[in-house]
Write a structure and sequence with these properties.
single chain, alpha+beta, 60s Ribosomal Protein L30, Chain: A, five-stranded mixed beta sheet, four-stranded mixed beta sheet, 2 helices, globular
């Protein structure tokens, strides 16, 4: 089944966090990186990140998962959205040829621990595996659509 294109959407790049006051579709491509979505069913705020590395890094460096999550949680807190009201989903952490399985597993583990320590529950987790993912986050419904990206290459003539 071919995924129907969404439109219009914003692209989320590596090391970026997008904080939304209104529903706007966000698209990203994931390999060993991790995307986390936060969604408020009462439509007060939405957030998504695309982190590359586990841990903290330098303060505010959103290539690392902890600063990403800190920024997202601060945004939700400013809107008075509690952890209990927030729907959290995790995606990515693929064991790609370029990545290392232990590194992919590490970013997922760090994210899960950090979120739990802050009082958040993960409602959906689609991580690991051998294929990258094309992800569409639709804040209007809180839905996330994923298309697995094959590692097969084909030569174009």
């Amino acid at each position: 089944m071919k995924m129907q294109p969404f439109g219009p959407f914003r692209n989320l790049g590596i090391g970026e966090v997008i904080l939304l006051n209104r529903p706007e579709i966000v698209r990203t491509i994931l390999g060993s990186c991790l995307a986390v979505t936060m969604w408020d069913p009462q439509m007060r705020g939405f957030a998504i990140c695309h982190a590359v590395y586990a841990g903290v890094g330098t303060p505010g460096d959103t290539h690392y998962i902890e600063p990403c999550l800190q920024k997202m949680i601060a945004f939700m807190n400013r809107r008075k959205i509690t952890p209990e009201e927030t729907v959290v989903k995790l995606f990515g952490g693929t064991e790609t040829g370029q990545g290392h399985p232990l590194l992919s597993n590490k970013i997922v583990s760090v994210a899960k621990t950090f979120l739990a320590d802050q009082g958040y529950t993960i409602s959906v987790e689609e991580t690991g595996g051998k294929h990258g993912r094309e992800l569409y986050f639709v804040p209007e419904s809180g839905s996330v659509f994923i298309r697995k990206v094959s590692d097969k290459q084909e030569r174009l003539k």
